[in-house]
Automatic annotation (TrEMBL):
GO terms for cellular component: plasma membrane. InterPro entries: ABC_transp_permease, LivM-like. Residues 367-376 have a biased composition (Low complexity). The chain crosses the membrane at residues 29-48, 55-73, 85-106, 115-133, 179-197, 228-250, 281-300, 320-337. This is Branched-chain amino acid ABC transporter permease. It is found in: Cell membrane. Pfam families: BPD_transp_2. Keywords: Cell membrane, Membrane, Transmembrane, Transmembrane helix. It is a multi-pass membrane protein. Residues 357-366 have a biased composition (Pro residues).
Length: 391
């Protein structure tokens, strides 16, 4: 029954998302595009960090690779930059494949490191990729970046042309409206794939590697291969998210994919709950939309000042809220918003929700040192000692 209700809830949310372009203005449509692109990147990162247990601070680097590969592969050669002039669909596929290839090339390093050391190694990717973006000016456009060709499929353009005029329900569908449905399709497919991958044999192998590499190896799991697969999948998600961000902006520049972007991705999955696909989407919504909304309505909020005026600007305010939210989640909501939702479902009685998936380092339901005979509350089990051990 719970699964049935969950599917109904998902269909309702999908129907709402399909109808939103009919009532939203350009600001909210643009914000929605950024949210959906960031959600795909966050889902890929939660598979790597939350499911496979590998810390990465270089997610922005893979997103930058995807964005620039799309911009170069679909762009035309001009006096300042070069381009391959490929179809946009092929450019989107190349963005994911090239990012995945870089992730595969980095996987031997990931197989040798873990924890903070792996995080620092991935951090180096951000600076390496940024250096390349600034110096490979023929491909990237240097510091100022390069423009991005609009997406088109079968002669239909997801911009204000081809066709020049398109209306649905009396609402003119311009570029932002058309991109909304493209991004929504990509986001739904990405989340569906991630949810199935998380519960598949590969996902269970990642979880075993996360909990104990020694135990995973003893079970016959190829630890290095599992780590490599996690990095490749996560990198492909990041590359797709980068290409989508390029389409949403209409232009790519190195500053979009700085270290701050990597931190933002981490904040998304921590707030939403490590390993949770739905939590990653909610975290992306919060982290991406908050600064944009504060900037849009800063004049109506008395505690915010205009950017550059010396007061509390929207960007700084959003960072403060991020910090407070992370502290609150770590102290009061272990497991993030997804963990809090699971606990609420379980309080409603048996059968009201799916069993909680043990997180990193948490005891499983079949732990030999716990007994639930005392009203469902765990109690320590006293193991009898043999005569030989008492002599």
């Amino acid at each position: 029954m719970s699964d049935h209700l969950r599917r109904i809830g998902g269909l309702v949310l999908l129907a709402v998302a399909l109808a939103l372009p009919l009532v939203l203005n350009d600001f909210w449509l643009q914000t929605g595009l950024f949210v959906m692109a960031a959600a795909i990147g966050a889902v890929g990162l939660t598979l790597l960090v939350g499911v496979a247990g590998q810390l990465s601070l270089g997610h922005a680097a893979f997103a930058a690779i995807g964005a620039y590969v799309y911009a170069w592969s679909t762009g035309e050669t001009t006096t300042s930059v070069t381009g391959a002039g490929l179809p946009p669909v092929l450019g989107l596929v190349l963005a994911a494949l090239v990012a995945a290839g870089v992730g595969a090339a980095f996987s031997p390093v990931a197989g040798r490191l873990r924890g903070i050391y792996l995080g620092l190694a991935t951090l180096g990717l951000v600076f390496i990729v940024r250096h390349l973006l600034l110096n490979l000016t023929d491909w990237t456009g240097g510091f100022t970046g390069r423009s991005v060709e609009s997406f088109a499929l079968g002669g239909f353009s997801f911009s204000n042309r081809d066709p020049d005029y398109l209306a649905v329900g009396g609402v003119e569908f311009e570029g932002l409206h058309r991109l909304w449905y493209l991004f929504l399709l990509l986001a739904v497919v990405a989340c569906w794939l991630a949810a199935n991958l998380r519960t598949s044999r590969t996902g269970r192998a990642w979880a075993n590697v996360r909990d104990s590499e020694t135990a995973a190896a003893a079970m016959g799991i190829g630890v290095a291969r599992a780590k490599a697969a996690a990095f490749v999948v996560s990198s492909a998600y990041a590359g797709t998210a980068g290409a989508m961000l390029a389409l949403a902006y209409g232009r790519v520049a190195p500053d979009v994919f700085s270290l701050t972007a990597s931190v933002d991705f981490l904040v998304m999955i921590v707030l939403g709950g490590l390993g949770s696909v739905a939590g990653a989407v909610v975290g992306a919504l919060f982290v991406t939309a908050l600064p944009l909304v504060l900037a849009e309505y800063s004049s109506a909020l008395p505690f915010l000042a205009a950017p550059g005026s010396g007061g509390l600007d929207p960007s700084t305010a959003s960072r403060i809220v991020y910090g407070l939210a992370i502290i609150a989640v770590l102290v009061f909501l272990r497991g993030g918003l997804a963990g809090a939702a699971r606990r609420l479902r379980h309080r409603g009685g048996p059968g009201t929700g799916e069993p909680a998936t043990p997180g990193p380092g948490s005891p499983g339901p079949s732990s030999p040192d716990l007994d639930t005979s005392d009203g469902g509350h765990p109690a320590a089990v006293t193991h009898p000692r043999s005569k030989e051990t008492t002599r």
